[in-house]
Write a structure and sequence with these properties.
Elements (H helix, E strand, L loop, with lengths): L6 E5 L3 H13 L3 E5 L3 H6 L7 E5 L7 H11 L5 E5 L4 H9 L4 E4 L4 H31 L9 H14 L5 E4 L6 H10 L8 E4 L9 H6 L12 H4 L4 E4 L7 H13 L1 E2 L8 E2 L3 E6 L3 H7 L1 H9 L3 E4 L10 H16 L8 H9 L5 H13 L18 H19 L4 H8 L3 H10 L11
Parallel strand pairs: 1-2, 1-3, 3-4, 4-5, 6-11, 6-12, 7-8, 8-11
Antiparallel strand pairs: 9-10
């Protein structure tokens, strides 16, 4: 499938050959920017360039190899395809060892060149998408917990409000719903973002020196040592999996919640700390009280805001977006391209109950990128309370989104791929609120 409108930057000093290759590539659907030398394109290229460079090795002034070296300083991932005379083949092979995408000895087949351009464009699109993902992950501290469903929009609205306050919070939701990442997101969006973010895991309490690790030691006893609570001063202290904190540790935590003070080992007076506390609970409120009244007391004493974090089955329409983000994340981490998502894969994604929520979906995405979790075209029966009509509508929207993304918004390409009349395609896009322009890369 041709990436319609994608840019090919052609550098060729032979006027007749440059004109012929330009025309042939334009007939293939590419936008060609042709130059007779390398200095001008070097000045206009940037790390955001989404196209492919096709360059002759022998050029006036700066030759293709020198141009390639300068281009790698600008962005080593911009794909460069070399065309060479017979005597320049060794130079082109050496350039490929240094990262060039391909080379073609003259005379060459423009149709084969176009196929190489198409492959290089796919790799370039993946690089740019991974860079965008990396920037988003750095900004958010992890994949976004928000989507487009009503449940996700409600969660985002609540989080946006509470992040601007200094109120203590209880994040309550089933295991794997992203509560830890959400706690980090709230801290990063708060006035305490540049201050410490300290997480207390229940496993700490199994250590025989748990009190020392948490509350530190006063210098009057021995060499002073700061604990986790003191290190959180000015920032956020997260009490993770608070339902699993041992009974004997709860009284001191409850006092910390009440007074924002703690007594270090050997100290005669308590230390005061300025901390915001976020507790993470995997049980609903009734179950938490039934399981342990002491644990419920610690949560109650926070006197803050309880933020319910929805399970994945409460926001099924977000599954395609979450899955795509996780796949892009693992393509980046594993440095490999994922296989195409087929009908059986989407059927599984949209009908599986996902008891492990986002954590399970993320693991599935990792296996998908590795080629370990592919599904046959026929999937398991649809289960749960969602109607068949709703599931089919979500499946149809997902197929349309994927096709538009692959075609960069080209209606003609989507129509050909899905083999449906143009009017029917437009009707379906309007029904799902999809605009082809939103999927164009330019």
């Amino acid at each position: 499938m041709t990436a319609k409108g994608a840019t090919v930057l052609l550098i060729e000093d032979d006027d007749a050959l440059r004109a012929g290759v330009t025309q042939a590539l334009e007939l293939e659907g590419y936008a060609v920017e042709a130059h007779s030398e390398a200095q001008t394109p070097l000045r206009i290229l940037s790390p955001e360039f989404a196209g492919v460079v096709v360059s002759d090795v022998r050029l006036p002034g700066m030759d293709g190899i020198q141009f390639f070296a300068r281009l790698r300083e600008l962005d080593p991932d911009i794909p460069v395809i070399f065309t060479t005379a017979h005597g320049d083949v060794d130079m082109a092979v050496e350039a490929m060892k240094n990262g060039a995408a391909d080379f073609f000895p003259k005379p060459y087949s423009v149709s084969r060149l176009a196929m190489s351009v198409e492959r290089a464009l796919g790799r370039r699109a993946l690089v740019l998408e991974n860079r965008k993902l990396r920037a988003e992950l750095a900004d958010q501290g992890g994949p976004s917990a928000f989507g487009r469903s009503p449940a996700s929009r409600r969660l985002e609205a609540i989080v946006s409000e509470v992040a601007q306050t200094d109120a203590d919070l209880v994040l309550r939701g089933a295991p794997g719903t992203g509560k830890s990442a959400l706690a980090r997101h709230i801290h990063d969006k708060s006035a305490r973002a540049d201050r410490p973010f300290v997480v207390v895991d229940p496993a700490i309490f199994a250590n025989e020196e748990a009190d020392l690790l948490l509350y530190g030691r006063d210098p009057s006893v021995a060499l002073s040592r700061s604990g986790m609570v003191e290190r959180a001063n000015g920032g956020t202290l997260v009490l993770d999996a608070i339902d699993n904190i041992p009974r004997k540790a709860r009284a001191r935590l409850a006092n910390l919640v009440d007074t924002r003070s703690f007594l270090a080992l050997g100290a005669s007076r308590p230390y005061q700390v300025d901390i915001r506390i976020i507790a993470i609970s995997g049980a609903n409120r009734a179950n938490a009280k039934a399981k342990s009244k002491a644990t419920a007391d610690v949560v109650d004493r926070l006197a803050g805001v309880t933020v319910p974090v929805p399970s994945l089955t409460d926001r099924r329409e977000d599954i395609p977006d979450f899955f795509r983000r996780f796949v892009a994340e693992f393509e980046l981490l594993l440095d490999r391209a994922a296989p195409p998502v087929m009908e059986g894969d989407w059927h599984h994604l949209l009908t599986h109950d996902w008891p492990g929520n986002l954590r399970e979906l993320r693991s599935y995405a990792q296996g998908f990128v590795l080629g370990l979790t592919r599904m046959e075209p026929s999937g398991p029966p649809i289960t749960g309370s969602t109607s068949l009509k709703d599931m089919l509508a979500k499946f149809e929207r997902t197929v349309l989104e994927d096709a538009l993304s692959r075609a960069s918004g080209s209606i003609g390409t989507v129509q050909a791929e899905l083999a449906i009349p143009r009017k029917t395609l437009y009707d379906k896009l309007a029904r799902h609120g999809l605009r082809p322009g939103d999927f164009r890369s330019d």
